[in-house]
Amino acid sequence: MLKISMENIDKLYAAIKESRDLFLPIESAGQVQFAEYTDDAVVRLDVLKTVKSAKDAFFPQSEDLMEFKVCGKEIDVIPPSGDMKEFVIMGVKACDAKSFEILDRVYLKEPIDSYYALRREKGLVVVQACGRPEESCFCNVFGIDATAPVGDVVTYLVDGTLYWDAQTEKGKELTEKIASVFDNADANDDAKVEASKAETKAIMEKLPFANLDLSRFNGENMMEIFKDERWNELYKACLGCGTCTFVCPTCQCYDIKDYDTGHGIKRFRCWDSCMYSDFTMMAHGNNRNSQMERFRQRFMHKLVYYPSNNEGIYSCVGCGRCVNKCPISMNIVKVIKTMGVTDNE
Amino acid sequence: MQRIVDKINELFANGTVDRVLGWKVGEFSYDRTPYVFTKEGGLDGFAYDSFCANNLSKYLIAESRKEGKVLVLLKPCDTYSYNQLVAENRIKTENVYTVSIPCKGKVDVEKLKAMGMTGITDIVENGEELTVTTLYGDEKVNRCDVLCEKCLACQKTAKECDEAIEGEAYEKPHKDRFATVEELEAMSPEERFAFWRKELSKCIRCNACRNVCPACSYIKCVFDNDNSGIASKANTDEFQENMFHIIRAFHVAGRCTDCGECSRVCPQGIPLHLLNRKFIKEINELYGEYQAGDNTESRGPLTSFTKEDCEPSIVYEKGGK
Ligand code: SF4
Ligand code: SF4
Ligand code: SF4
Predict the structure, then answer these.
(1) Residue B210: CB within 6 Å of ligand 3?
(2) Is the confidence at residue B298, as pLDDT, over 90?
(3) B111 touches A at CB < 8 Å
(4) How many separate domains does chain B show?
(5) How far apart, in whole angstroms, are the C-alpha atoms of residue B137 and residue B135?
(6) Do residues B36 and B165 both lie within one domain?
(7) What is the pLDDT, as a whole number, of residue A276?
(8) What pLDDT is recorded for position B251?
(9) A95 CA to middle of ligand 1, Å?
């Protein structure tokens, strides 16, 4: 394991920037988001949760797909320029890191999403163990260990020092390149990291949602849950905004749009929200006409449909962002608690 | 709260109302969800406390179209939104029973978090002091330091309702609601543009501000309507980030009651109320003091014409402010 004092951390960022683009949790106008590192950026590795998740790195909110140019009777189809620089995304927490695996199962399955695949190939993920979980966190319910995130490099931020531990080939290769900025960690440091992990684990056990019961979402009662009367209660106050879907690391739906430039078309895709009234609108109309159906779709997808297509893996990582940000405080925890027990229990 | 519960039970018992639009407790001591309680279901989980910030008036567009009579609980600021919605013929008033309730300002949990109190497991209120229990220790804060932005400058008193439940006398904090607008006006156009760019670049186009807004009560918004030519689901560039908010601010101008819900719900903490307050300030200066939702009859200054109205050239005379 290597280490660098937070006082010198800019040296690490500069070293990485020499060969790659670098994305970090950066504060701007009071909010922390993953954004590209610049010399004057206010980096906040100490902040637990960015408002949006880290998924933009691989699946940006909007992304150009191709361009069509009309010249007389010819139409030119121009693919986006393929020369994307390699990049590093740093400060990714265990929940967001796990969400990449959930997105991979959608986008790297045949037919492979080449835009996503390119970003996955170019990107290197530096994860960071959590130091101060919040009341809304419930990653442990999905088998995620907040102190052992999965990525190319694992880091720990303890008492003003960042510990750096490369895991994969990709991670080791980068580490070799920038080795001069680090010092070697000793046994004393190992003990510090272990102690901090143990502290976080003890807190994890005390979290209010630590014992959320998912047993009813076992893939055997899809129709029963779908038809449950209680959706009618749960959705009632839903505003139909997209907050929960846009802050969520695992929400994966997008819409493809054309922008008329006057002499051609720019085709792009952007995140869509199942909460929106025109979600999956087709020529014949919309197959979910009420907000109840749209609301139900979000949770059925995360807790029932996705797991039934993916060996029981849920499409929620318990990051708690939707718990924090829903304007009416309705969220997946309330859904799990309500639908997780049958009416007569 | 007990007086509100007693009143509701009385109105349930004597058959005046069938349903109640109120707030329900959640998972934490601070999350409250709007909820419709019924006579049969009772008031299980009902709450009215420092965390019931949601303005319930907009829900009446749908609720007042259902069978039976619905009682709605309105904080002083919410009574203005209610009036404005009635003025715009959005609510079937014959199916609504309005009850105004007292408010000492609502607590913004985001402010507690920003002060470093994360991992909140309990918040206990004792007069003007809050004791916040977190997984990392207890802390005490003054209520007035953590009120919602919308409550800091709120000088509203309840408009007439079918019934009023009075609270004890209480002095609200009074921040001048135009103070920040004036600071922005004092900036150079470049500085002002930079301020708004920084704020609006955070927008993720979740539409929470629009969907919560009682003035945004249209069935199909231009931004959702593919035939409008400006429909969009994401801010694909800076222009769109700005345009969405400028159009929205113009559209609610003269109708915005300054209920502050837009800023409160924004997941990105964008001070949208400053745009609305700029419009309110302009309207006050150009057409005379006007408060949307003050009553259900008068037409707003932007939807009525008088010979004394200012000329469009005022824009140039103001010198870009
Ligand atoms: S559903 Fe909510 S808690 Fe689960 S991953 Fe998405 S934002 Fe996080
Ligand atoms: S609520 Fe905030 S982030 Fe969402 S659309 Fe409105 S301004 Fe943008
Ligand atoms: S624009 Fe904002 S302050 Fe105005 S009525 Fe709508 S939510 Fe309230």
Answers:
(1) no
(2) no
(3) no
(4) 3
(5) 6
(6) yes
(7) 84
(8) 93
(9) 9
CA of A288 to the centre of ligand 1 (A): 22
Question: How far, rounded to the nearest angstrom, does the alpha carbon of residue B134 sit from its chain's CA centroid?
Answer: 28
Query: In the beta sheet, which residues pair with residue A255?
Result: A270
Same domain for B120 and B39: no
Mean pLDDT, chain A, rounded, equals 94
* Residues B197 and B274 reside in one and the same domain: yes
User: Domain check: are B202 and B92 in the same one?
Assistant: no
**Same domain membership, residue B117 and residue B102:** no
As a 3-state breakdown, chain B gives helix, strand, coil percent values, each rounded to 5, of 35, 15, 50
Choice from B110, B204, B246 to test ligand 2 binding pocket (greatest atom count within 8 A of CB): B204
Q: Is the domain of B193 the same as that of B300? A: yes
Residues of chain B in contact with residue A255, where contact means CB-CB under 8 angstroms, are 233
ipTM given for this complex: 0.94
Domain carrying residue B285: 176-321
Using alpha carbons only, give the angle A159, A165, A167 rounded to the nearest 5 degrees. 150
Instruction: State the CB neighbour count (10 A cutoff) for residue B226.
Output: 11
DSSP 3-state of A192 = helix
Which segment of A265-274, B24-33, B206-215, B256-265 scores lowest on mean pLDDT? Answer: A265-274
Q: What pLDDT sits at residue B237?
A: 83
Provide the β-strand partners of residue A258: A267
Q: Any chain A CB within 8 A of the CB of B208?
A: yes
* Structural domain boundaries in chain A: 2-206, 219-339
Residues B213 and B253 in one domain: yes
Please tell me whether residues B306 and B183 are part of one structural domain.
Answer: yes
pTM greater than the 0.80 cutoff: yes
Residue nearest to atom 7 of ligand 3 (CA): B213
Range scoring the smallest mean pLDDT among A52-61, A69-78, B92-101: A69-78
Instruction: Using the predicted structure, report yes or no on whether residue A165 has a pLDDT greater than 80.
Output: yes
The finding on whether B84 has its CB within 6 A of some atom of ligand 3 is: no
Give the whole-angstrom CA distance, residue A184 versus residue B226: 58
